[in-house]
Amino acid sequence: MARRAARGKGRTSYTEMKAKDFANMIRKDMEETIDADLNGFIRSVVNDLTSDSHKNGVSPVLTGFFASSWKADDKIIKKTDERKNFPRWAKIKTVTRGSKGSSRTVLGPGQKSFIKQRHPFDPKFTRNKTIYIGNTTKYSSYALVSPKSRIPDYLVGTSPSKSMKAKIDRFFSDKRPDIRVGGSSQVIPNTDPVERRTIYTKYS
Fold first, then answer.
1. pLDDT of amino acid 149
2. What pLDDT was estimated at residue 16?
């Protein structure tokens, strides 16, 4: 009978099959939940980075082009964009002030910065693939270490208002992720759906 446990070699009982089906259903549901949380986390990080450090945000801002150029992808982020090639930011005039050796670039009279996320977020990420978060501007390496940048504080959790720690606690409250700061620009999720561990490394 179908309900009788089959004891033959290589055969599985009806009860065992039902248990496996149930376990698979639970695992699939858990994995989908984790992926949804992961995508929410990545979207929120990109939103934080697309912000003005002078307005309780994270990124250094002059014209707003750098802050507008954050992107999440499953491929390495290429730093190829120049402000002059994007009319909305190219028309924002800047001037140099100060003496030689101590000069600085500022907005021209009557000019305002403009911040708008240039790369739409696609919630395509899964826990078993490498995820890259980076900036597409050519000068991003310089902007990251600007005195106006709050990105290092954001990454290591020393910012009192916004931090990666707070973001992780919000999206992964049941299991605290393992955060590692390194030298590449990527978020690498662990493939174990039970641990729900995310490794986050610093932007290059």
1. 87
2. 67
Greatest CA separation for the chain: 93
Contacts of 7 (CB under 8 A, 6+ apart): none
* Amino acid in position 5: A
**Runs of H (alpha helix) within 50-176:** 87-90, 140-144, 151-156, 164-171
The predicted structure's pLDDT at residue 188: 39
> What would the two tokens of residue 185 be?
């620009």
Which of 99, 91, 89, 105 shows the shortest CA–CA distance to 146?
A: 105
Alpha-carbon distance 54 to 52, whole Å? Answer: 5
Side chain identity, residue 197: R
Dihedral, 74, 151, 197, 174 alpha carbons, nearest 10: -130
Nearest to 95 by CA among 84, 109, 112: 109
Distance from C-alpha of 135 to C-alpha of 46, rounded to nearest angstrom? 10
Helix (H) or strand (E) holding 38: helix 14-49
Q: What stretches in the chain show pLDDT beneath 70?
A: 1-10, 12, 14, 16-17, 22, 53-56, 158-161, 173-204
Give dist(CA 107, CA 117) in Å, integer.
Answer: 20
